[in-house]
Amino acid sequence: MTISRFAPAPTGYLHLGHVLNAIHVWGVTHARGGRVLLRIEDHDRQRSRPEFERAIVEDLAWLGFVPDDVCAVRQSDRGSIYAAALQRLRDAGLVYACDCSRAAIVEAHAPPGPGGELRYPGTCATKHLAEAAGVGVRVRLPQTIERFDDLRRGPQTQRPFEQCGDLLVKDRDGNWTYQFAATVDDYLQGVTLVIRGDDLLASTGRQLLLARMLGREAPLQFLHHALLMKTATQKLSKSAGDTGVRDLRAGGWTPSNVIGEAAFRGGLLPERRPLDASEVPSLMAR
After folding, report:
1. How does 8-25 read in b/e, with b if 16+ C-beta sit within 10 Å?
2. Pair 161, 142: CB distance under 8 Å
3. Range of the domain at 250
4. 162 in a domain, yes or no?
5. I need a labelling partner for 200 at 20 to 30 A (CA). Which of 18, 137, 161, 209 fits?
6. pLDDT at 116 over 90
7. What digits encode the pLDDT tens for the residues 174-215?
8. CA angle 257-262-265, nearest 5°?
9. Which range is least confidently modeled, 95-109, 123-137, 234-248, 265-279?
10. pLDDT mean across residues, the chain
11. Same domain? 188 vs 73
12. Same domain for 72 and 185?
């Protein structure tokens, strides 16, 4: 059975970009007869807020996107699970402490990875620093070539070590990183299909590699869809309040109006029209 997840970060309110992702997640998954899990990705403890989490759950219910799990998984409740996963990598000699800030990595003038991505040059790999407060944790990545078929973009080839260097899994503030927490959760929750925006395509190879290092045998499938853009180079942002679902609700929009607008702007409808959440699987099955 196909199992996917809708995994918002409670650092702001839902906007039309999230609605477009929900259309893809619920539409593709339910068209396949699968299940959608709700996961609250509040690994960033400094920016996550309970009021945003409550609003996300409320807005999803208002839109008609109902998860198939009984209750949401919250990453802030799963610290011991991530620690156990990290210990597996530590026992294999793949973990080291790192006190480099992002600014220090930039100042090191390390050659960027493909696409201009900031690449960690391995500054602390041989320092033998103790894991302590104020110190991050990295995992050594082997120099593999990761190949996968994206369900929208087709065959992909990525080299995670060349892209990003050794992977940060816990930051200097003690937060588990997105790359690590999402990979562990997808593995342990039995997620089989990840549906997300094109901005995360570059993360796929490293997450496939990390999952394999943690013991996952059957690799995930991925589908990366186009983003809703504010400008030619800026995607919609919940922190900036772009086209927020709450604002549209207050302005008198109905759920089907909001879903239809997101589908139209995302290229899924040829013209603006109301679209109910119950119609989404049929739309995505075409």
Report:
1. bbbbbbbbbbbbbbbbbb
2. yes
3. 3-78+180-284
4. yes
5. 137
6. no
7. 999 999 999 999 999 999 999 999 999 999 999 999 999 999
8. 120
9. 234-248
10. 94
11. yes
12. yes
Tell me the C-alpha distance between 90 and 139, whole Å.
Answer: 8
Cα 276 from chain centre: 25
Domain membership of residue 88 (yes or no) is no
The mean per-residue pLDDT over the stretch 82-107 comes to 96
- Based on the fold, state whether residues 73 and 186 are members of the same structural domain: yes
55: alpha, beta or left, given left = phi > 0 and alpha = psi -120 to 50? alpha
Let me know whether 191 and 257 are in one domain.
yes
How would you class 165 by CB atoms within 10 Å of its CB: exposed for 0-12, middle for 13-18, buried for 19 or more?
Answer: buried
3-class SS string, the chain: CCEEEECCCCCCCCEHHHHHHHHHHHHHHHHCCCEEEEEECCCCCCCCCHHHHHHHHHHHHHHCCCCCCCCCEEHHHCHHHHHHHHHHHHHCCCEEEECCCHHHHHHCCCCCCHHHCCCCCCCCCCCCCCCCCCCEEEECCCCCCEEEEECCCEEEEECHHHHHCCEEEECCCCCECHHHHHHHHHHHCCCCEEEEEHHHHHHHHHHHHHHHHCCCCCCCEEEEECCCECCCCCECCCCCCCCEHHHHHHCCCCHHHHHHHHHHHCCCCCCCCCCCHHHHHHHHCC
What is the per-residue pLDDT for 237? Answer: 60
How is residue 14 written in tokens?
A: 């839902």
CA–CA gap between residue 126 and residue 123 (Å, rounded): 8
Query: Considering the entire predicted model, what is its pTM?
Result: 0.94
